[in-house]
Amino acid sequence: MKETACGAGNPDPAGNRDGTAPFPWLPLIALLIFGLALRVFSGWNTAVINPDGAIYIHQARALYYGIWDAVTRCTVSYLSLYPILIAGAFPVVGDWLVAARAVSILFGTAVLWPLFLLTRRFFPLRTAILVTLIYAVLPTLVDGSVEIARDPMYWFLAVSGLYLFTRTAEEYRPFYLLSGSSVFIFAASLRIEAFLLILVSAAYLMIAGPRRRRLRGTLVFLLPLILSLAAFFLIQIVRHPEEIYWYRLKEIPGKLIGAASRYQELRDQLNLLIARPPAGIPYEFFHNVRSNIWLIGFGAVLKHAVEAFFFPFFLLALVGLVRLRVRIAG
């Protein structure tokens, strides 16, 4: 079967682009073991607990001992999947700190599996293995995988959802649409940013999805979200008929409105500096800063992105973008 630049026409659910090559179990298992070893070693040598870690352990303890009122009393007013899994791991390991790190390390390692499957849909086997190896040894991901935080579980769910969603690239597949959307919803319960994955995926289905089924595919993809929101409102009406408790849903518009308001406040403060600039700083400086303040935010995002890539790998990514343009054009 003829291969395309994006892996369309791939019939193999495991991600083998030719549909005949055996699944590379041995190298993938070796990568998982290697990634796990790095994370266990890093966790063993990490003595400091991040501030949020104490909150999640507190929630897990409250769940384990049945102190339901204390679950949402300590800073965080909602319950996520992470403390629930910590409470489930505690009887196995017998230590709250070890249980919390074990859950993070487990998902920080497990993300390599859907990452390989996702990468394999777009690139040859050697490239997919290399990408997975890079993510296995990436310092930022290794360090993040031993933190007592929701991020490792979010990475696993987000990448798994992306893999399931890409399975619909060749044809209309309701099962993968429903599965991918459901996984994205679980990811959003950990990190509210995952709602962007749902919105962007729905927009993609409407614009570039399989023809004649774009509207149907979009509705199928959004069905778990619609049912989840309906169940949420029903439960809230029963539990709090006087007022709906929005949990983290109110953070979505709040973050957008808050960012816009803070941006305007900063521009207003710069207006004062333009009118009365400090001694030694020319008027033009603050005038230009006020007009181009958004570039500072863009630069900060770019800086963090480069750090997340790890500097040597970021240079490789730039080279890959050039090749990607040629590949798409061809």
What does this structure look like?
The structure is a single chain. This protein has helices spanning 25-44, 51-64, 81-93, 96-110, 112-120, 125-137, 139-144, 151-166, 174-190, 195-208, 214-239, 251-275, 283-291, 293-309, 311-329. With 330 residues, the chain is mostly helical. Helix 4 runs parallel beside helix 8 (151-166), helix 5 runs parallel beside helix 8 and helix 12 packs antiparallel against helix 13. The two termini are 17 Å apart. The relative contact order is 0.07.
> Strand count, sense and closure of the main sheet?
none
Strand content: under 5%
Q: What is the helix content?
A: over 70%
Mean pLDDT: 82
The secondary-structure class comes to: mainly alpha
Termini separation (Å)?
17 Å
Number of helices: 15
Low-confidence runs (pLDDT<50, min 5 residues)?
1-16
- The topology string of helices and strands comes to HHHHHHHHHHHHHHH
Short description:
The chain is mostly helical.
Write the layout of secondary structure elements.
Layout: H1 25-44, H2 51-64, H3 81-93, H4 96-110, H5 112-120, H6 125-137, H7 139-144, H8 151-166, H9 174-190, H10 195-208, H11 214-239, H12 251-275, H13 283-291, H14 293-309, H15 311-329
Helix pairs in contact: 1-4, 1-6, 2-3, 3-4, 4-8, 5-6, 5-8, 8-9, 9-11, 10-11, 12-13, 14-15
